[in-house]
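dumping these here so i dont lose them again. two proteins, back to back, each one seq then structure tokens. dont judge the mess
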Amino acid sequence: MKTFNNIHIIGLDNGYGNIKTANGIFPASVVCYDAEPAHAHDLLIYDGKYYVIGAGHREFTLDKVSNLDHYILTLAGIGQELWHNRMTTAAVHLAVGLPLTWVDNQREAFRAYLWQNRHVDFVWRGIDYHIDIVGVDVYAQGYSAVIPELKKFTGANMLCDIGNGTMIVMSINDRKPVPDQCYTEKYGTHQCVLRAREALTRLCGRTVPDVAIEQVMREGTADIDPEYVRVIRDAAAAYVAEIMRKLREHEYDPKTMRLWIVGGGGCLIRNFGQYDANRVTIISDIHASAKGYEYLAERRLKREAKAQ
């Protein structure tokens, strides 16, 4: 969280797998109840409803405004960041992102959706929060995550942001994005989980909890039968090979371009990919996008204040 003129800028990376702030992360799923559920730790109470955060997997949708899920997750993200900074009342300026090719068509709808209430009272993890939302900025996913590294983007570069639901590909030449070489594909890490599930069922006749599959994806192994680990690793390697094939379809040439990987899928490339470490950079900070949104919003607010 950044602060400018008593306004608290909170960056939120509204992914389909996880919500990330500059200092927090939690699963991006919501289950609504009319009465308070028992034994719910990650509970948000808003407008008389009870929302359990992190239960189950949220379905991919082609926009983020078709239901209340992203609004509830945004409130939880605000609460998470305010808790980290020991605050319960604040004037908040939201800085968020959309997949690159969605920004032009969906920016204003997403901005209005997040700004549907200027004042909001809610309870998150047992603490009352009272906030005024004073502004909302919407940026392109991916690019914001490499803002601190942008000075290194000389020559030809390709940026690949691998999230849970989507994979975003962007060409950046001499620090400038190439508008007609930006793509969004529905090929996020959840596709790897689905591939591993199918392989386990087909080859082992068993199912394995997603938490174990995701652990193998992140760390290369898990406390399960070695045969299951091998099947998951093979599925992950095939998924990574497909990512590299898709990048080549978008004119990635490892001999003439540098590749930058951001997002949660970076661990898959690191664990299961074949690449030249001298020409491929994997940014492991999963909070990089949220921090980048905050940086861009703060820079804009300072520029506007200076112009007045």
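---- next one ----
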Amino acid sequence: MTNIPNVKLGIISVSRDCFPIELSSARRTAVAGAYGDIYECKTTVENENDMLKAVEDVKAAGVNALVVFLGNFGPETSETLIAQYFCGPVMYVAAAEDAADKLMGGRGDAYCGMLNCSYNLGLRNLKAFIPEYPVGTPDEIAKMIKEFIPVARAIIGVKNLKILSYGPRPQDFMACNAPIKQLFNLGVEIQENSELDLLVAFNKHKDDPRIPGVVADMEKELGDGNKMAGILPKLAQFEITLLDLAEQNKGSREYVAFANKCWPAFQTEFGFVPCYVNSRMATKGIPVSCEVDIYGVLSEYIGTCVSGVPVTLLDINNSVPADMFSSDIKGKFDYTLSDTFMGFHCGNTPMCHLNKGTLKHQLIMHRLLEPDSEPDITRGTLEGDIKPGEITFYRIQGTAEGGLTAYIAHGEVLPVATKSFGGIGVFAIKEMGRFYRHVLIQDRYPHHGAVAFGHVGKSIFDVFRYLGVSKISYNQPACLPYPSENPF
């Protein structure tokens, strides 16, 4: 995927001038050796002049994510100014003491120094990534650095992202119509456009010489699932249109995502359903949300950066029928009926996450737009059951009141046939019923949730925290009631 950042790490050590500078420098070298692929700044920071020199050094080396290492107590002013002058994601960690026989002449007191470091970051309103337990040996810190990479990748991506939206939010989908002020607070740019702008751009790509090549690639990807080959040239034309719009409208930004209106006028004017193209764009690292869901596509992009694989956006759609639960789930998996639900969208989930993806028509739109004829303008969905495996269900959301909230839950897609249409799966999340009522409903989240494939909630939580999300909810265990939960 070319639409997410490459992280180049650097490490700067700091030293309080009443401690041996050699202690911090030697410990830094040990950390760099334990991790491996990291640029080691040789300037150990004791004061502001050192800080300026060190920051310029890592910038010149192309570093875009930084580890600040307290090899000893550290100079709280200079070490926190690094985060201010570096202008990229910064992690602060501290050295554990080496051995009992070094506690007289070689004690670093970095455990103490992290407290003052945190206080000074707060004084200066600076954001930083601090691991759950930020003190360790070189090998332990190397593991912390590894966990920092997906967080840093997402932060860099968000700060360099432009969302291109086409069309207003559809009627009766006001839940997706969230205030955009928080996007700017996060550092995200948004360029809002008309559906007509998208249609004009699409029409200009008629007979584009690249269309046959994209059609051939689609045919290869679909294989036996290519049930509606006649629609592929239009879908290819639309894919090329989106890719060109991304390049033409990046402006000062490096990365792009789309939030597009996809029905009902889309079908009558463009002549197809865009779902399959949206799935392919997600595979390229350029997510396209349905129904102009700007915070949905921001969620997708964050998950793409964190996981490094394509994500999807699904409706938290329908309950699992009791008879299906009894026959296919009960006694086979450790879930109750209310732990399960079905996640669905028309056909935007990438082929790599489906058991057998097939190009079809959108059943609901067909009922509405061409009920008395064979599918034509409603063709273009990629349908199939979602592959079983671990997932993270999550979303960042601008609230109606202008705030910023988020939720995260780990779960799985069960190996249960859905017996339904669309890109769909039977999902299971522990205590989903309570989570649904006291987070999703209570906090007024829309019906769309982003799905990352794998358990990556720890990193997503750290990204949300770094971005300053005021409330991050999760599926609390039964022993931990929600504030709104009726205790009786």
